[in-house]
Design goal:
The chain contains 18 helices and no strands. It is mostly helical. Helix 11 packs antiparallel against helix 17. The protein is globular and about 65 Å long. The termini are far apart.
């Protein structure tokens, strides 16, 4: 094996190790989809629409705070160390949810699980972005999106297998939830062998260690040149003390607002209403519980296929047009679901129409919207503020996710399928407008070049321009 092949293999192993965090993110958010109908039974947790929304969405509230806290801690203690700590929290909280005797204990451990999910959602893309060479950064970071939807797909498959074969076992949902502990152990074991981010090491004055890491994953001359480039960027950054108040600087405030906006765009598509409540949506449209569990596998499968396509796409096409096409597709699919829910109400064709359109929705969402939003959040912030900036952006993503996750079953039971999806159509139109007007293009530049571009662009901006106009 020649040295270049060895370095590529090392880089690939680092990517796979970190993206077990994405797999956990996916499984832990997807497993609730099939577990809810069994938890709600009178002999189990006796969930109402309100407690059903709470059990689902409390994880998302935890994730919001996990993203915010872990982003700050990762800037202080390192990306790798935080991912290792999160793997332990994943394991502990997974066991807690599986053994929960009542709704209160379930809510507590789902919140703790959310802390881990949110931390992983902010840390893993940032870690991958810092490890990847710029020409591979898009594909490496979006591999995490593949692991997220892969985790959700595995959750749907195991939910269907356990739900169909053990439907008469009241506590089958406990078996669904305890499986989350397995990838947590895999994440811990694999990250023990992964190195720390060279960009973080240089930011802490550990230049020789950073160069050693870079030489493991880059050709030697390129490693030395990249090390000098990172060092120059870090020295420029340290002229100003890094803190939350840095975002009062106009060009950094603009980036933070873009990061928050892109993160919120990811959620107002309504994607997680389908990922968390897909089984309930299919039941509402006319499927039985077992049929809905099985049909929901189609949602998971198309997500995996679409992300594989999206990983290829971000390596070939600019970020902005991919995101705009994806948002146009998701909004159209949701509009058709809302219309058919009225036109085909009571018809035997309705459940199949809804299933087909959720599959179409997820093809656009997971192939275009998901990969680009996570990638842009990981790319746009300067080194010293990457953990904090990503954490704040993802905090808003999860807060919005929490609000949608809590409100969705209540809206579905009180207002019906069509009205609920018309709301998401309106939000989708707003998302298209935001991306078109404000989101910058990040393809084809190193992280240091992007930072210099945003700095210099601010210097050229006139005072009359908007605070977030790009």
């Amino acid at each position: 094996m020649d040295m270049n092949e060895h370095r590529n293999r090392r880089l690939k192993l680092i990517m796979i190790s970190a993206t077990f965090g994405g797999l956990l993110f996916g499984y832990d958010t997807g497993v609730i989809n099939g577990a809810l109908p069994f938890m709600a039974r009178p002999d189990q947790l006796q969930l109402t629409p309100v407690t059903e929304g709470l059990v689902t969405s409390i994880l998302l509230l935890g994730a919001a705070f996990g993203a915010l806290l872990c982003g700050r801690l990762a800037d202080r203690y390192g990306r790798r160390n935080m991912i290792l700590n999160l793997s332990f929290l994943f394991f502990l909280a997974s066991l807690g949810t599986a053994l929960a005797p009542n709704v209160l204990i379930m809510v507590v451990f789902r919140f703790l699980l959310g802390l881990a999910v949110g931390g992983a959602s902010a840390m893993v893309p940032a870690f991958l972005a810092e490890m990847a060479p710029h020409e591979k950064r898009g594909r490496m970071v979006t591999q995490n999106e593949l692991m997220i939807v892969g985790g959700q797909f595995l959750a749907y498959v195991f939910n269907a297998i356990l739900g169909v074969t053990m439907a008469n076992t009241g506590h089958v949902w406990r078996y669904m939830l305890v499986l989350c502990a397995v990838p947590a152990l895999m994440l811990f074991a694999s990250m023990l062998k992964a190195p720390e981010s060279p960009r973080w090491l240089i930011s802490k004055g550990k230049k020789s260690e950073a160069l050693r890491v870079l030489k493991q994953i880059r050709e030697e001359k390129r490693a030395e040149a990249e090390c000098r480039e990172i060092q120059a960027a870090v020295e420029k950054d340290t002229l100003e003390k890094a803190s939350l108040s840095d975002f009062s600087t106009p060009w950094l405030r603009r980036l933070l607002l873009i990061g928050i906006g892109v993160a919120m765009v990811n959620q107002i598509t309504g994607v997680n209403s389908i990922m968390y409540y897909g089984t309930q949506i299919l039941k509402e449209s006319g499927f039985g519980t077992k049929a809905a569990l099985i049909a929901n596998i189609g949602n998971g499968l198309i997500s995996v296929i679409a992300v594989i396509f999206g990983i290829w796409l971000v390596g070939k096409v600019s970020r902005r047009p991919i995101l705009l096409i994806g948002l146009a597709g998701t909004t159209t699919a949701l509009l058709l679901i809302a219309v058919f829910s009225i036109v085909l109400d009571g018809s035997a064709a309705l459940p199949y129409a809804v299933l087909s359109l959720t599959v179409l929705f997820l093809a656009f969402m997971q192939g275009c919207v998901g990969p680009v939003t996570w990638l842009v959040i990981a790319e746009i912030f300067p080194q010293r503020l990457r953990g904090l900036g990503s954490g704040i952006s993802v905090f808003f993503l999860w807060i919005l996710n929490f609000m949608i996750g809590f409100a969705f079953p209540i809206l579905l039971s009180s207002a019906g399928l069509s009205f609920t999806f018309f709301i998401f159509v309106a939000l989708g139109i707003l998302a298209i407008g935001f991306v078109y007007k404000f989101m910058p293009e990040t393809k084809g530049r190193t992280l240091e070049e992007l930072e210099e571009h945003f700095r210099s662009q601010h210097d050229k901006d006139t005072p009359e321009k908007s605070a977030i106009e790009v």
